[in-house]
Amino acid sequence: MQKLQVFANDEAKMLQIRVCFDILDIDRDGHLNILNLLHLYRNLNKDTILCREIFRVIDYYLKKNVNCKVD
Questions:
Q1: Contact between 62 and 38 (Cβ < 8 Å)
Q2: Contact criterion met (CB below 8 Å) for 24 and 32
């Protein structure tokens, strides 16, 4: 997809984004949530760029939304 992107107009770029979103939206609810990302991360080859990016998003989400308090 990236190699053909230079030839794409705005409509084609939006279609590309939509296709990528649909691939990531495992439960087809129209939202990317942490459960979608965890499912993808668990089932993808850990050496791929996509999996590394998903891990970065999960890590960011956990740092922002999950507070681990140690007393």
A1: no
A2: yes
Question: Is pLDDT of 13 > 80?
Answer: no
The pLDDT of 19-38, averaged and rounded, is 87
DSSP state of 69: -
- Interatomic CA distance for residues 11 and 60, integer angstroms: 30
State pLDDT tens for residues 29-65.
Answer: 998 888 888 888 888 898 988 888 889 988 888 888 8
Task: Give the C-alpha separation, 69 to 71, whole Å.
Answer: 6
In the chain, what are the helix, strand and coil shares in percent, each to the nearest 5?
Answer: 65, 0, 35
- Where are the chain's structural domains? 5-65
Judged by phi (left if over 0) then psi (alpha if -120 to 50, else beta), residue 54 lies in alpha
